[in-house]
Each structure stands twice: as C-alpha cells, then as structure tokens.
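Quick check before the chapter quiz. The format below is the same one you will see on the exam, so make sure you can read both the input and the output lines.
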Amino acid sequence: MKTIAVVIASLIAFSGAHAADATAPVKEIMDATKSNWADNNSDWTDIFDAGRLDHLYSKDFVARYQAAAQFPAVDDDGISPFDYDVIVNGQDACPLEDLTMAAAPAVNGTTEVTVRFKKSACSDAPDAKDYTTVRFEVVEEAGQPVIDDIVTENVETQARDSLKATMALIAKGQ
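Here is the expected output.
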C-alpha cells in the first residue's frame, strides 16, 4: 500500500513539474525574437528554421507551416510564407521592453502561455507605450511541450488571429 502511495505522489509531482515546462518552447522563441529586435546587430534568428520546427512546434503546426511555405512571401530568403514578424505582428519594432510571460492552467490538454511586451517603446507614435499580447497554445507530444498555435490580438478589430488559420489560408493561395 505504501508503494502505491509513493507511485501516486511521484506521478503527481512529475505532472506538476512537467506542466511548468509549457513555457520552455515559448521562452526559446521569445529569446530569439528579443534578440532579433535588440540593438546588438546580431544575425536574424529564424524562429521557423528546420531545427526549431523539429522540436518546438506540434506536428500539425509543422504540417501547416510546410504547406504555407510552398507560397513564400516576397522576401530575401524566398522560403518564408510570412513577410512580417509573426510575434511582433509587424515589419518594424524596437527592442522589446517589459516582456512578461505567464502560463495558465492546462485546459483539455492545452496550456495557454501569454506573453506581453512593448514593441514600439523607442518610437514617438501615440501608441508607442502600448503592450502587444501574444498567446502561445502549448500541447504535449511525445512527452514534450510544443507550440501548437500562436495567436495575436488584432488591435484594430479586437479579434484574435491564429497563425495556424493564417497558414491554412496561405496554403490555399489566399
């Protein structure tokens, strides 16, 4: 009986510790994004390169990305389906400021990790101090947390824009 209690306690501890890992793939993407927009003149980090696609994103996300990549946006590399940074939701940004990250409790196997930051603080625009919010939907595949979708908030329409839905439209040639 004591052995069963120890096993159950271990499983509970493992599942609690594992749930905390939902932020790990998001942290890697946000570290790259923060570096991309920093004033350090470093090389641009592709958050969708083959290595990252292989371990940071869900199989469904990767399949949608690969389908969308058949229709590259007009850019230098000719392979990205996007002509903007999908995290800052634009083509221009300042060094990211006041970045915060918080994971909500998992619901139906999905943990929403909310990231907030100021992307235009160096600007003189009236909305320069506004926060950008990005929601990462993280699921578990093969025992690892992976990003299944990236959802941005459209300031103009107040709607949530799913990157997976955008990739599906791109793949249809829309």
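If your answer matched, good. The two ends are 61 Å apart (CA to CA).
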